User: Which sequence fits this backbone?
């Protein structure tokens, strides 16, 4: 049983073909620069050289067509034809309150996704484009929607409501929704397995730190609070997003500085965060490199704005950890994941500074040697009351497991999944 997982962005499509019977990835890759010229595909098959080819894709249908063509190619493909694909799983960023779990896609589901696309105007339209393209190219093949917001639908009203007139929630659905749900789900379940306890007995703080950044407070296996809100702009400092700011700031930019609404929105979403402070970087590797003096070039000192950006990001992560520890009452583990969380030991160390009072004891040497390729790693000391893990995320596996559950009729909710590859023999 081969399952195709698709993650459609505004100008890219990530894909993974997974064989459920053998529990292994057959192929994965990405089509980039869709609709903007010079598009190309990168295709990876375990045990083979990475394949890259330029191919002009004007829209998502042509990109998915290219993915299918590559997967079935006699030269670099891995399946004979589309009959091998049993189902397709689609990432959908925003499900609003309409969708609390993954669902089989039909006309009503598509209308529901359309109804909330104003809440995610940069994400839901390309997600829908990918769904429609896959339906046309693979008619009759079950299509399943997996929602970023679904895992957070367990939050209580005291967490997800904003202190604004209640009718805005009733009439327009204005509330906290949260994102990165499949990532928070996966790493929290894996952390429970590493702790050797059922997820329903674990309190975990998960930190998804990439270009987008979010934190989640998970109590007894379910999300009770998360840092992103109505949109992915709220919360922690990110690559180009401001995160938390004074709510009056957009009005100030518009009324006092003469910006248009779109200009203010662009400033907060695309020109702020790490980029806004450094003035030139979003990649934390560049920030870390430039925050340190170059011993081989004494004339090049450390970039003070890069130092500031690192300090700001670490401080905000530490502040959310403290807030969520208070919300949970008892914390069993803190988990770092995603590109920065898995690879930036310096940021992890700075974020965990001075948390010994609450039971965090970091193994600094082990932390600095831990990267994505290290796999699941405990970076706290063995006697640390709160365990700290680096766990590479695997959102595509959640897609696949949900697709299998939905199409086989065994799926009930997100809370029962991500146990398939638990390793009871794990040793810290």
Assistant:
């Amino acid at each position: 049983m081969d399952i195709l997982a698709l993650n459609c962005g505004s100008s890219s499509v990530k894909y993974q073909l997974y064989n459920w019977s053998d529990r292994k990835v057959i192929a994965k890759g990405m089509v980039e620069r869709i609709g903007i010229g010079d598009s190309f595909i990168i295709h990876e098959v375990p045990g083979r050289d990475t394949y890259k080819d330029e191919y002009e894709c004007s829209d998502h249908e042509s990109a998915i067509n290219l993915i299918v063509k590559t997967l079935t190619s006699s030269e670099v493909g891995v399946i004979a034809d589309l009959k091998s694909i049993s189902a397709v799983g689609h990432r959908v960023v925003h499900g609003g309150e309409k969708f609390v779990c993954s669902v089989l896609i039909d006309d009503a589901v598509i209308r529901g996704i359309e109804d909330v696309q104003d809440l995610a105007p940069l994400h839901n339209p390309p997600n829908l484009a990918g769904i429609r393209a896959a339906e046309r190219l693979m008619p009759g093949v079950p299509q399943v929607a997996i929602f970023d917001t679904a895992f957070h639908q367990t939050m209580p009203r005291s967490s997800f409501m904003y202190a604004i007139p209640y009718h805005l929630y009733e009439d327009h659905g204005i509330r906290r929704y949260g994102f990165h749900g499949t990532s928070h789900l996966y790493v929290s379940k894996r952390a429970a397995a590493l702790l050797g306890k059922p997820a329903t007995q674990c309190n975990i703080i998960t930190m998804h730190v990439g270009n987008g950044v979010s934190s989640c407070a998970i109590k007894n296996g379910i999300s009770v609070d998360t840092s992103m809100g109505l949109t992915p702009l709220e919360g922690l400092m990110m690559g180009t997003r401001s995160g938390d700011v004074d709510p009056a700031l957009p009005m100030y930019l518009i009324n006092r500085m003469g910006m248009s609404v779109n200009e203010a929105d662009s400033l907060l979403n695309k020109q702020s965060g790490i980029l806004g402070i450094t003035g030139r970087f979003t990649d934390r590797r560049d920030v870390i490199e430039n925050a340190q003096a170059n011993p081989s070039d004494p004339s090049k000192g450390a970039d003070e704005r890069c130092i500031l950006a690192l300090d700001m990001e670490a401080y905000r992560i530490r502040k959310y950890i403290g807030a969520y520890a208070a919300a949970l009452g008892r914390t069993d583990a803190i988990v770092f994941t995603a590109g920065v969380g898995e690879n930036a030991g310096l940021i992890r160390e700075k974020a965990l500074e001075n948390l010994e009072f609450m039971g965090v004891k970091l193994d600094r040497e082990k932390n600095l040697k831990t990267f994505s390729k290290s796999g699941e790693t405990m970076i706290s000391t063995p006697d640390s009351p709160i365990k700290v893990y680096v766990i590479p995320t695997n959102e595509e596996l959640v897609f696949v497991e949900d697709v299998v559950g939905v199409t086989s009729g065994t799926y009930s909710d997100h809370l029962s999944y991500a146990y398939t590859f638990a390793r009871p023999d794990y040793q810290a």
